[in-house]
Specification:
By secondary structure, this protein is of the alpha/beta class. It has ten helices and ten strands.
């Protein structure tokens, strides 16, 4: 009558729970009397109904590994005689400021609460996927701020790439894009190592920024970079689409106007535009060689 784990034997678990008064109206009338399926049976039944008697991937938290998933395997394979699941993915816990998140502690944090505090969904998503799924993840303002900064780096790069001067000749950037995709896919094939895949992304952005600085980015290279980012974002979901660009057209116009003012040595006008850009959350960064980039605050 009890499928909690205070059992003497690990293989002793309830397939069916007899009804008692605490269950209220939750029961079925059967030949065995009133009752309902045990917790583990519910999941086997739902899995088989929608995914079949054998399927590829079953996910869950590490707290589900035993007894829940062990019992799912036992009952499912006993019923069908087939392998139940080919691959199990168990994620570790999300902590809050170093403590495990629990309702009983009162430290549960919801997505709604984070967005109401001003954190953008893309930054929250980047934070959540930033660690390997089998590693603990600690939710703090500092970790969210780091994710926000990384989103700003990505946005600034996307805007700069769109405006970058390119050569009509050559293939500068094409080879880097191919190497990046191979590195990214290799990381994802290694037990979904998103942290390593993100490191490859940030390295790729630095490489292409350097290529832009040197004037070596070709038109075909820019197209290859855009396509590479599009492909990896089908996995990451954090790279802003052009239609949702974080750097608006009027801001890009101001950036171009400021560059023109600097070329004309009209530093007063350039400083005025810098002040305008700062109000938009954009900080121009001038390199000694005369190249201009910017970051989104």
């Amino acid at each position: 009558k009890n499928d909690s784990y205070d059992k003497d034997q690990a293989n002793d678990f309830a397939l069916w729970k007899a009804w008692d008064a605490d269950d209220g109206e939750v029961f079925w009338e059967t030949e065995l009397g009133k009752g309902r399926p045990g917790w583990h049976i519910e999941c086997s039944a739902m899995s088989m109904k929608y995914l079949g008697e054998t399927f590829d991937i079953h996910t869950g938290g590490i707290d589900n590994r035993f007894p829940h998933h062990e019992n799912e395997i036992a009952q499912s394979e006993a019923a069908t005689g087939k392998e139940f699941v080919r691959t199990w993915l168990h994620s570790d816990f999300l902590n809050v400021s170093g403590e495990e998140m629990h309702k009983s502690v009162g430290n549960v944090v919801t997505l709604r609460q984070l967005t109401e505090k001003g954190w953008k969904p893309r930054a929250i998503r980047l934070f959540l996927i930033g660690a390997h799924y089998r590693d603990k993840l600690d939710l703090t303002d500092e970790s969210l701020q780091q994710a926000k900064s990384n989103i700003a780096r990505i946005d600034a790069f996307s805007a700069r790439l769109k405006e970058a001067a390119v050569t009509e000749e050559g293939t500068g950037g094409v080879g880097f894009s191919g190497s990046f995709l191979a590195e990214f896919e290799g990381a994802m094939d290694d037990d979904l190592n998103v942290a390593e895949a993100l490191a490859a992304l940030y390295g790729f952005l630095r490489t292409i920024n350097t290529l832009i600085d040197s004037g070596g980015l070709s038109r075909s290279g820019r197209e290859a970079v855009i396509e590479a980012l599009r492909r990896v974002d089908t996995v990451l979901g954090v790279i802003e689409r052009e239609a949702d660009s974080g750097v608006a057209d009027h801001v890009l116009k101001l950036i171009r106007e400021r560059e023109d003012a600097r070329r004309r040595r009209d530093y007063k006008r350039a400083d005025e535009i810098r002040t305008q850009l700062r109000k938009e959350g954009i900080t121009p960064e001038d390199s000694p060689g005369g190249n201009v980039s910017w970051k989104v605050e």
